[in-house]
Amino acid sequence: MFSTGPSNSPGQQPRPRAGKAAATVALAVTAVYAGTIPTAQAAPHGGTSQCGGRGVDTTALIRYESDIVIKAPLGTVWKLQTDVERWPSWQPPVTTAERLDPGRLKAGSRFRWTTPAPATPTTPATTLAITSTVQELQRHNCILWSGPAIGEGLRIDEGVHLWTFSKVKGGVHVHTEETWTGTQVEADVPTATAALGAGLEAWLHDLNTTAEA
């Protein structure tokens, strides 16, 4: 997810791989976004995090992952994350969110949400409409969804987003990772990775702030 807001939060532990080259590009993206995007780096490939035996696209060129410990009950964190229609109430980057089917969120559920995408050196500022389908869901444990993101002048053919939740001393350990595929974003992998990383860090920041409140 893209973000134009702050995203630094205590306890977050991004896992870099891209090294000096990606860090340089990430800093360039930071400047383009007027200093609002953190230095994002690619996550290591070949991770083992899964939900119901499924995970992100391990062949994707664009990938980012991060972790945080939230000092709140697991039920609180889970409800915030899975009550999709209320995302705009605590995530400023999510401008709209709607369920496309009734009932409790489960495997096969679909939802559509929108988020602004700031301009990059290769793509214009736009609003992305994302149609997500839940692929796997284990209550209070994990959720995996995927789908395309489409805006004027920008398209992500498929984003695959995994979240896992586990009780730890003092709160809940939250792990998230996401991959993007598509010709347009793959034309500039470091910039796309920086944008993806900024969005995930902002999401974790907002989830942490809201749950702990």
Automatic annotation (TrEMBL):
<feature type="compositionally biased region" description="Polar residues">
    <location>
        <begin position="1"/>
        <end position="12"/>
    </location>
</feature>
<feature type="signal peptide">
    <location>
        <begin position="1"/>
        <end position="42"/>
    </location>
</feature>
<dbReference type="InterPro" id="IPR023393">
    <property type="entry name" value="START-like_dom_sf"/>
</dbReference>
<feature type="region of interest" description="Disordered">
    <location>
        <begin position="1"/>
        <end position="21"/>
    </location>
</feature>
<protein>
    <submittedName>
        <fullName>SRPBCC family protein</fullName>
    </submittedName>
</protein>
<dbReference type="InterPro" id="IPR019587">
    <property type="entry name" value="Polyketide_cyclase/dehydratase"/>
</dbReference>
<dbReference type="Pfam" id="PF10604">
    <property type="entry name" value="Polyketide_cyc2"/>
</dbReference>
<keyword id="KW-0732">Signal</keyword>
